[in-house]
Amino acid sequence: MESPVDRWVGWSGLRHFSSQPTCQRRWTVVPLLTAPHVRRVPRGETTSSELPRPVPATRGTPGGEKAVMSVTRVLLLACFALLVSFTVPAMAAECQGEPAVAAEDAGIHAPFDGLLRAFVHDGVVDYGCFQVHERQLDDYLRNLADVDLGELSRGEQLALWIDAYNAFSIKLILSRYPKIASIKEIPRRWDRKDWTVGGQKYSLDQIENEILRKQFHEPRIHFAIVCASKSCPDLAPEAYLDTRLDEQLDRAAHRFVADPGKGSKVAHGKSALGRSVDKLYLSSIFKWFRADFERGGTLVDFVMPYLTGDERFFVEEANGDPPIAFLDYDWTLNGK
Predict the structure, then answer these.
(1) Residue range 284-288: average pLDDT?
(2) Pairing with 68, which of 48, 78, 217, 288 sits 20 to 30 Å away (CA)?
(3) Cβ-contact 182, 176 below 8 angstroms
(4) pTM of the model
(5) What is the DSSP string of 137-177?
């Protein structure tokens, strides 16, 4: 009896071993009106009804050897292209730099501080470098998991939770990088309890709303925690530390509010009657968390110390009560 290996499917001199799958698929050769055509058949699909009775080809068939070689080359190229498609993402993360030396007083935040100093520039995060040096980020996450919060002062705890939120957000992006354009592509991105601090699991939502907002009542945290998006405040190129936390938070607030693309700007808008009027446009962060900023006064009272130039002049001309609108939020990834 003819063995499977010796079985041939012939057409116009083409021959093919039907029992030898290429790229985990079985290929057959079917006739067309004018030229042969190679059809890929998924494993388990029956094709006997589609094909004429196989005609064995012999080694002496004119052009047979060349045809087999040609088909083999095509199939090998297809396999190679498939292999490349799987390996390119793994090679996409490239980095020419090394983590920086951390600040002397960084303590348990040293691994994260070194990464931030090296791979964050003007708010742009080099996720490729973070991925190349992901082991160092994981070292920091282990520090957070093992920390004893009871031994930390209130200021140390506040700095730690800010850094933890930012580190967890970066780790979340790396789980999809480089095939990600926005954090919103990740299901349950903010309510997944994937992150460990002091031996307990938390979600990003819990860290922001139940800990940072509820326990510390510090509105400037909204300019320090970064959700990996372009309209978020710039990620600081250093870890937040208790020894200079107030200065760091104030610098983050000034930088964010003064940024016309993110924080505030004066622009034309429509009044309630449809008339064109100038308005003070603020980040949507001020809309979502307005109550946090109005504990000691109005929203304008809060942003006024951080306004500069035209924005500050506009508020003064409006006697501290300008018409306010909110900017659209860009959820595009804040890095490369």
Answers:
(1) 98
(2) 48
(3) no
(4) 0.72
(5) HHHHHHHHHH--GGGS-HHHHHHHHHHHHHHHHHHHHHTTT
